[in-house]
Amino acid sequence: MAISASMVKELREMTGAGMMDCKKALTNTDGDMDKAVEWLRENGLAKAEKKAGRIAAEGLVAVKVSEDGKKASIVEVNSETDFVAKNEVFQGLVNSVAAQAVNTAAADMEAFLAEPWVEDSSVTVEENLKNMIAKIGENMNIRRFEKIEQNDGMIVPYIHAGGKIGVLVSAKTDKPCAEVEECLKNVAMQVAAMNPKYLSSDDVSEEYKEKEKEVLLAQAKNDPKNEGKPDNIIEKMILGRLNKELKEVCLTEQVYVKAENKETVAKYVEAVAKANGCQISLDKFIRFETGEGLEKKEEDFAAEVAAQL
Question: What distance, in Å, lies between the first and last C-alpha atoms of the chain?
Fold first, then answer.
């Protein structure tokens, strides 16, 4: 019997199992939905999927640079607890996921999970993850991945706080040497510490700027201190505040944290380039922080025990 996409979708919604697991279950049961559900349970996948209801907001970020230095990946893999995140088996999994991501052709997470696993091509990335969930006994999730390719310069990785924050910085340079690498690592540390949103103000959309101006204008007009001030004065005020905000969120315009003279990151990179007789042009950075944007589970063991009395 031909297994349709709608059948796979239906089984996935019924069980919460992975796409590839649902397809395999339907194939092995000739499209019988009830038997497919039972097949998932019999193969231990129901156990893993039961854990999938738990919030996985801890975990690790890992980075991987290819041997030729022209490609790099950054991944975030989540676990339920920080205890598991410190487990060597889990750490090995995260590093392997990063190695998979360096050479992946996948454009999204669904395609990535469907790829043959880098360490055992007889299973997919998703199937291997299910096996690890059953082995470790905690819900886990490959949350995201990104890649950088740089053929005309260097890519430098940086991991902070044992994997809580990961950064990749890419730059074009005509002299890929140790001094340039050290410069880019310092920039990566800046990214980890200051969490910029853009490379420079040139990357900030006009739409974003206009929305920020609207917010700042409303704040200014609602401030009693500005009552009676002409519109042109208020306009200058909000433009000043907007420029200050942009300096805080744009990497090259931030004050370089290790500078004694409050020079910007752009000036620091320019000084290193001049000192080494080369060109350095920052062109991209990626920053992942474990669990950012995820709701973390709040444990209340006293309440849990009391509820059972």
Answer: 52
Q: Shortest CA distance to 205 belongs to which of 248, 250, 238?
A: 250
DSSP string, 81-137: -HHHHT-HHHHHHHHHHHHHHHT---SSHHHHHHSEETTEEEEEHHHHHHHHHHHHT
**Eight-state DSSP code of residue 255:** B
d(CA 305, CA 267): 58
- Report how far residue 22's alpha carbon sits from residue 190's, in angstroms, rounded to the nearest whole number: 44
Tokens encoding 112: 């990535």
Q: Which residues contact 163 (CB under 8 A, 6 or more apart)?
A: 60, 61, 62, 85, 91, 94, 290
Q: Please name the helix (run of DSSP H) or strand (run of DSSP E) that holds residue 155, with its range, or none.
A: strand 153-160
- 205 secondary structure, DSSP code: -
- Residue 100 pLDDT class (50, 70, 90 cuts): very high
- What six digits make up the tokens of 291? 């669990």
Highest mean pLDDT among 6-15, 34-43, 135-144: 135-144
Which residues, in sequence order, are bridge partners of residue 71? 149
Neighbours of 2 (CB within 10 A): 6
Separation CA 282–CA 20 (nearest Å): 40
CA distances from 72 to 100, 127, 189, 226, 265 (A): 11, 24, 17, 50, 23
Q: Which residues contact 227 (CB under 8 A, 6 or more apart)?
A: none
Containing H/E element for 280?
strand 280-289
CA separation for the pair 102, 222 (Å, rounded): 51
Question: Which range, of 35-44, 151-160, 218-227, 240-249, averages the lowest pLDDT?
Answer: 35-44
pLDDT of residue 211: 85
- Measure CA 190 to chain center: 17
25 has which bridge partners? Answer: none
Phi, psi of 172 (to 5 degrees): -85, 135
**Contact at 8 Å (CB) between 51 and 36?**
no
